[in-house]
Amino acid sequence: MKPIKRLTLGIASLAVFTSIAYSTSFAASNTDSQVTAREVEVQTARTSVANYIEAIEKQDEDEIVKWVKDTRFKSEEEQKSEYKEMFKNDPFDKVVISGVKKVDDNMIVSLKLIRKGSGKRQFLDLPVIKEDGKWKILVTGVETKEEE
pTM for the full model? Predict the structure, then answer.
């Protein structure tokens, strides 16, 4: 083979190899950034749920309404009033986030609730939606389910 052909073949091979390596690297970094964006979104939703739980523990109805969309009530005033009543009769001692997963454009949070006195565990899955750029728990009148 003539030296010019070898040089041309070598450069072409190097170009193909570099192109493949770059494409593979770009695809991997693009996938990594998509995973990272998804993880950030899940963590942001988890933080909103944690803020909601903390507001309940502090019995701060003004803060609770920032982190929840509760369709059971016609007005924010009614919502706050019912939350004050809930604090008097709250049957749960502790609420723990057991998981948050992305489903389409929303999230589902899994909560573990510990009953006062008996320590019995109950579980609740709630949707977490994005409203006005903030993640909020969506409450529609769901019931808890006891551990079997």
Answer: 0.70
